């Protein structure tokens, strides 16, 4: 093995949950120091020819509740090189983790005016928001929290038991909205997040409007969704949030 890159630390898979073929969660013991809920780091493995493969993944875990046991939600890209190797891992296998965490999609970045938090995600990007929701003490000041998870098929709606327990903990301030685009599922909206924002179906489902003076929106996932949802939010009167110029929504592409 060639020398391990200096930005990586050795970890070990301590548990694995297979949600469906090609969609799984890895639990990795690795000493990367503390991190904020909602942040991400890199997972890395070395190919037989010595080349290192790295990719950023959000932690589903929170440091406060899980410490150095990190949790990642991963989907396998059949045309990719790293994700099939990650899927082949079993408990006890080694996995390298980035020592440095990144990302500004955290509770500390919420502007003071925000009383209603919308968390709009696609696919595995929901993991970052589940991490946020695992630290309720940082969200107590909010009046409402809306978690939206858009997927293609019902089987992609992972972490249902965790979301149910979160709903019980947060009570009436919390709403969960699943969106399935390629199946008609009882209890789920059908379509795309940007369209459901513009036609008002999403707001109607939770009985809440997206308003510039109260609402803050985090977008995470498919770049096409983020682009189109950003345009939709602008049509609704919201502006992009920047540290130098506070606004109403912020985003992180998931690839």
Describe, in plain words, how this protein is organized in 3D.
By secondary structure, the protein is an alpha/beta fold. It has 2 domains: 91 residues, Elongation Factor Tu (Ef-tu), domain 3, CATH 2.40.30.10; 147 residues, Nucleotide-binding domain of ferredoxin-NADP reductase (FNR) module (Rossmann fold), CATH 3.40.50.80. It contains 7 helices and 11 strands. The strands form 2 sheets. It has a 6-stranded antiparallel beta sheet. The mean pLDDT is 96.
What fraction strand?
A: 25-35%
Helicity, as a percent range: 10-25%
Largest sheet: 6 strands, antiparallel
What CATH architecture of the largest domain do you see?
3-Layer(aba) Sandwich
Mean pLDDT: 96
Element order, helices and strands?
EEEEHEHEEHEHEHHEHE
Sheet with most strands: strand arrangement: 4-3-6-1-2-5
CATH topology of the largest domain: Rossmann fold
Oligomer: single chain
Distance between the termini: 28 Å
CA gyration radius, whole angstroms: 18 Å
CATH superfamily annotation of the largest domain: Nucleotide-binding domain of ferredoxin-NADP reductase (FNR) module
Let me know the number of strands.
11
Q: Could you name the ranges where pLDDT drops below 50 across 5 or more consecutive residues?
A: none
* Number of domains as seen in the coordinates: 2
Q: Helical element count?
A: 7
Catalytic activity: 2 reduced [2Fe-2S]-[ferredoxin] + NADP(+) + H(+) = 2 oxidized [2Fe-2S]-[ferredoxin] + NADPH
Keywords: FAD, Flavoprotein, NADP, Nucleotide-binding, Oxidoreductase
EC number: 1.18.1.2
GO molecular function, one term: ferredoxin-NADP+ reductase activity
């Amino acid at each position: 093995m060639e020398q391990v890159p200096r930005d990586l630390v050795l970890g070990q898979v301590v548990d694995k949950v297979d949600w469906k073929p090609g969609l799984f969660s890895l639990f990795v013991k690795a000493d990367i120091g503390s991190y904020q809920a909602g942040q991400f780091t890199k997972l890395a493995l070395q190919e037989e020819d010595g080349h290192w493969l790295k990719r950023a993944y959000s932690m589903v875990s929170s440091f406060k509740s899980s410490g150095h046991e990190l949790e990642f939600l991963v989907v396998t890209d059949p045309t990719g090189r790293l994700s099939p190797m990650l899927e082949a891992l079993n408990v006890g296998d080694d996995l390298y983790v980035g020592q440095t965490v990144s990302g500004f999609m955290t509770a500390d970045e919420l502007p003071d005016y925000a009383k209603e938090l919308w968390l709009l995600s696609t696919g595995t990007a929901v993991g970052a928001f589940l991490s946020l929701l695992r630290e309720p003490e940082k969200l107590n000041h909010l009046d409402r929290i809306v978690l939206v998870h858009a997927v293609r098929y019902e089987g992609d709606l992972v972490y249902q038991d965790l979301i149910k327990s979160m709903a019980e903990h947060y009570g009436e301030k919390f709403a969960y909205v699943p969106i399935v685009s390629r199946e008609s599922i009882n209890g789920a909206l059908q379509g795309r997040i940007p369209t459901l924002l513009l036609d008002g179906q999403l707001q109607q489902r939770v009985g809440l409007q997206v308003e510039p003076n109260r609402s803050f929106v985090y977008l995470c996932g498919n770049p096409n969704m983020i682009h189109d949802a950003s345009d939709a939010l602008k049509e609704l009167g919201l502006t992009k949030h920047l540290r130098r110029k506070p606004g109403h929504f912020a985003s992180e592409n998931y690839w």
